[in-house]
């Protein structure tokens, strides 16, 4: 049996870890790469030489390319649709994934993060592959937004707080709807924040570790952040891509699962821990926009606050309860918060 997977968002943090994972398991991996004026394939360049990796230009805003790519895959592997061994896994990770930016480009965010999912699901149906397809949708803890209960599990009501969260909620429900309406194997993973040395540089964890590296090298003198008191349930992306795969192997059939570490930390804590690993002892003085983080050993002021990084509507705290995934899928996150911070710091402070 050919193991075949299509990954949208293959050039992103999760796409790169997932591709590595699938290639190691013997899959033929097909990836959709968004055209960009500068190189955007750094995270998968080390996989380029593998014959089992097939990249095609495409975009979730363009049905014609989704149709062309899926038809090419069908032609190559699934000509005989009656073969009971056929299995085609589709991981929809492509998205405009930055919450703050989604307030600035809300319509584009809706087109890609909401309608893009619909385009992909419809393409699977129109190519006649819905019976053999196993579809994974990258849902997010941002759908819980202004949380109505703590911690959040699969039954917690949603209350998104950004165009990103709202668009992802559409995708979450359309995935469930296509599962129920057309009997498709379609699942959503409601993933809490997951990070790594491959995390995009404008997400807070990576912004902190890159700044720390630059400060040590004398290339940057301060780090300017937004809401220091936001709490997030931060795990490692490598653990989470394994959970995505497990959702598509579930012998009980398609279902939705939360993936989370079940503990949360503030942005402030992340900063303190990262800086401590390189010998700084960060303490805080002042409040609000005047708050400053300084190193008690030298008195040097290093961390400042700017409203430039505040969001029009903030998600103050997210804490997951991944009991269902742990029980049914046997999934557990292996990387602790301390290990995550340490790995990111070491990678950015070389
Ligand atoms: P990421 O690093 O921002 O990667 C996003 C990927 O989507 C990139 O490959 C990007 O291409 C691609 N993309 C953007 N716009 C596209 C378009 N119009 N058409 C096709 N592809 C497009 O995000 P990530 O952290 O890996 O997250 C993967 C998925 O999980 C995303 O859907 C995200 O919203 C969701 N999610 C992430 C987290 C998290 O904490 N990381 C948590 C929950 C859910 P470029 O490389 O060209 O930009
Ligand atoms: O912000 C606060 C900010 O941008 C985390 C995406 O992967 O996870 C991610 O979304 C918190 C927020 O991630 C800065 O206000 C303070 O409260 O790293 P972030 P996010 O918004 O949680 C979810 C699960 C996704 O699905 C998304 O795709 O940190 N914060 N100061 C800051 N955030 C940023 N970016 N920059 C700051 O300077």
> What do the pLDDT scores average to?
98
CATH class bucket of the domain at 3-196 and 235-263 and 317-335: Alpha Beta
- How many separate helices? 10
Helix content: 25-40%
Poorly predicted tracts of residues: none
- Number of DSSP-assigned strands: 15
What is the CATH topology assignment of the domain at 3-196 and 235-263 and 317-335? Rossmann fold
Report how far the terminal alpha carbons are from each other.
43 Å
CATH superfamily of the domain at 3-196 and 235-263 and 317-335: NAD(P)-binding Rossmann-like Domain
Name the beta content range: 15-25%
Which structural class do the helices and strands define?
Answer: alpha/beta
How many whole angstroms does the radius of gyration measure?
A: 21 Å
Identify the CATH architecture of the domain at 3-196 and 235-263 and 317-335. 3-Layer(aba) Sandwich
Strand order of the largest sheet: 3-2-1-4-5-6-11
Overall form: globular
How is the main sheet built? 7 strands, parallel
List each distinct ligand once: NADP nicotinamide-adenine-dinucleotide phosphate, ligand F7E
Helix and strand element order: EHEEHEHHEHEEHEEEHEEHEEEHH
